[in-house]
């Protein structure tokens, strides 16, 4: 019985490894003080920062996801 449970565990673990992408393959490139490019697998994320006086405010101004065929704005604060 222990052998069957052990084999079942390792089988499920091996399938789970194939289904989820390994996030360790991501690379970060700092383009400037206010722009960063994050590259993970087949999607690139362009992150634009803004300068804020208050530490509690969000410093991320805009996040754009870029693929080979498309680009989409995920977050945009506009001209705030």
At a glance:
This protein has one helix and five strands; from the N terminus they run αβββββ. It has one helix at residues 2-19, and strands at residues 27-30, 35-40, 43-49, 60-66, 71-76.
Can you describe what's shown?
The chain has 80 residues and is α+β, with helices and mostly antiparallel strands. It is 22% helix and 38% strand. Strands 1-2-3-4-5 form a five-stranded antiparallel beta sheet, with no helix packed on it. A hairpin with a 4-residue loop joins β4 (60-66) and β5 (71-76). The chain is elongated. The model has no long low-confidence stretch (mean pLDDT 80).
* Strand arrangement across the biggest beta sheet: 1-2-3-4-5
Structural category is alpha+beta
Order of helices and strands: HEEEEE
- How many helices in DSSP terms? 1
Overall mean confidence score, pLDDT: 80
Strand tally: 5
Indicate the percent of residues in helices: 10-25%
**Radius of gyration in whole Å, from Cα?**
20 Å
By oligomeric state, this entry counts as single chain
Main sheet characteristics: 5 strands, antiparallel
The termini sit apart by: 62 Å
Low-confidence stretches: none
**Which outline best applies?**
elongated
Task: Give the percentage of residues in beta strands.
Answer: 35-45%
